[in-house]
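Researcher: Let's walk through a ligand-bound prediction step by step. First, I give you the protein sequence. Second, the SMILES string for NAP. Third, you return the three-dimensional complex as structure tokens. Ready?
Model: Ready.
Researcher: Here are steps one and two:
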Amino acid sequence: MSRRVTLLGATGSIGTSAADVIAAAPDLFDVHVVTARSNGAKLAEVARSLGARRAVVADEAGLGDLREGLAGSGIDAGAGAEAMEEAAAEPVDLVLSAIVGAAGLRATAAAIRSGSDIALANKECLICAGSAFMSLARQHKVQVLPVDSEHNALYQLLDKREAADIRTYTLTASGGPFRTWSVDRIAQATPQQAVAHPTWSMGAKISVDSATLMNKGLELIEAHHLFSLAPDSLDVIVHPQSVVHALITFRDGSIHAELGPADMRRPIGYCLHWPDRVREPVSSLDLAEVAQLTFEPPDLERFPALGLAMSALRKGGGAATVLNAANEVAVEAFLAGKVAFTAIPQIVEIALTAADSEGLLATPASIDEALALDAVARRLAQADLKRRRAVA
Ligand SMILES: NC(=O)c1ccc[n+]([C@@H]2O[C@H](COP(=O)([O-])OP(=O)(O)OC[C@H]3O[C@@H](n4cnc5c(N)ncnc54)[C@H](OP(=O)(O)O)[C@@H]3O)[C@@H](O)[C@H]2O)c1
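Model: Step three, the predicted complex:
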């Protein structure tokens, strides 16, 4: 029997890789809904190629292109925030959550409330609303399968393991495009250089997060929520080849690692086919060709964003919500050429300090509370951006 799936963020990097996985085994999937923000033309193409029943753009401005692209196909077209939530709430077997940013939270929560299992790529929605998100999933008995390669690796490593036997959970980081750059050179980094990731091909926002190492910090918080792991049991190691994705260290000193090619179709395929394993459209890993696997500690001085995320993880409460929202604002400003690369962690730190001094860092008890704190944090970060523009 085919598996009914919905792809939220179908036109993005993860969405496109998911479409490849589905196209490689078309009889195993029945695609219900595909969504995008505004790229109606591309969404129409994806919907046609996957034989989806409904395609929805969040931004009404994309509806014209979507309708035009779907003309004569019999595929339903929709637009707007309400249509997105409604479409995400159509009960299916699995919803791939691959919208970028906390903007994906409402749709993903709507899918959870309908009882659909979630393949989670959109880490920001979990960073924004961690405890509320996971408790919603538990309440609706929904499985949250991690798409992020490191968490997918941990998920596989943890299978049938006793938590009491494990001392440390280690996520690997490629180190990003500026791994070997000096502080002065990093200060001059352009958006074009920041999105040129050395090992992974990804959307612009996560590529910048990888360049600041904020991505690895977000992933520590993601792992904490996904697997209920204590902050001090989580660790990061820089591994430029991106072949080892995560490691667990047992209390007897033995270390187990998960290895695989740096191709997101692998963890996406794992989630889409779970619990089965099938042959994916991914080239196999030739370790002799890789030849060397190297590891080094992260440098928190050149990459302060990772330290900020580690502090937010330890602090708990609403700190991660603020960190995430301020980071989204700062990355968008950097990509638009409005601030320097090094302003990203500064803007995040200022928003965190302001939110803390205003007593705003209580744990959001619900998705709505998390989104309210997210909105406040965005205002704090915007205010800092405005100050920066005024003095520039
Ligand atoms: N790319 C990777 O390899 C990778 C790996 C691990 C985790 N992730 C995570 O997966 C998520 C997606 O990443 P990505 O690299 O695929 O991003 P991306 O290439 O930028 O794609 C984002 C997708 O979300 C849609 N979207 C953007 N803003 C939206 C909004 N406000 N409302 C509704 N839809 C919106 C986009 O539609 P339009 O095309 O119309 O803009 C697009 O379909 C992120 O959370 C990222 O951290 C990605």
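Researcher: And what stands out?
Model: The chain has 17 helices and eleven strands. The radius of gyration is 20 Å.
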